Amino acid sequence: MLRVTKLRYGFPIGLLLFFYLDGILGAVFPKQLFSYPYSMSSYLVVLWLVLSVFFEDQIHIPLEIWAAIAGGLFDVYYTGIFGIFVFVFPIVVALTRACYKAFPINFLSGLLVHFIDVTIVCTLSYVGNLVVHLTSASFADMLVYSLAPTLAYNLAAYVILYFPIQWVFDRLKN
C-alpha cells in the first residue's frame, strides 16, 4: 500500500518528466540520435520504472499500473500506434521485480537489469512493428543499427542518472 508520502506525488511527476525528456532529447539532438543508418531510442521512462523498483523499499508503488499508463501515453504520443508499449512496459516492470529478488540491489546489478530491460523493450517493439508491417528491417539490421546504439545511449543515461534518481527517491520517502 502506498502510504501518504511525498513519493505518492513525486513518482508520477518524475515519470511525466522522464516521459517528456524522451521526446525533448529526440527533438533537440536529431542528428546525433538518428543519423542514417543508426537510430538510438531514448527510454528514460524505462529507466525511471526500473530504478523505482530498486528504490521503492517498503513503500510499494503500483508500478505495473503506472507502467501501463506510461506505455499507453508513449504509444499514442510517440509512435501513434496504441498497443505495443502498453504491454511492454508492465512486462519490463515484472521482469525487474523478478531480477530484484535474484540480484542484490547495487549500481552494477542495476546496470545489468537495465541492459536486459532495454534489450527486451527494443526487441518486443521491433517484433510488434514487424507484425503490423511497420518495419521491413531484418533482425540483424535491428541488432546492429538500432539495438546497439540504443543500449549505448540508455546505459550511459543509467550511469549518469542513477545516483541523482536515488537521491530523489531518498528525499521523497522521508
TrEMBL record:
Pfam families: MreD
An example Gene Ontology CC term for this record: plasma membrane
Main location: membrane
Superkingdom in the source lineage: Bacteria
Localization terms from the record: Cell membrane
A biological-process GO annotation: regulation of cell shape
Coiled-coil region: none
Membrane topology: Multi-pass membrane protein
Keywords tagged on the record: Cell membrane, Cell shape, Membrane, Transmembrane, Transmembrane helix
Spans through the membrane: 7-29, 35-55, 76-95, 107-131, 143-165
Family recorded in the similarity comment: Belongs to the MreD family.
Name listed for the protein in its UniProt record: Rod shape-determining protein MreD
The species this protein was found in: Secundilactobacillus folii
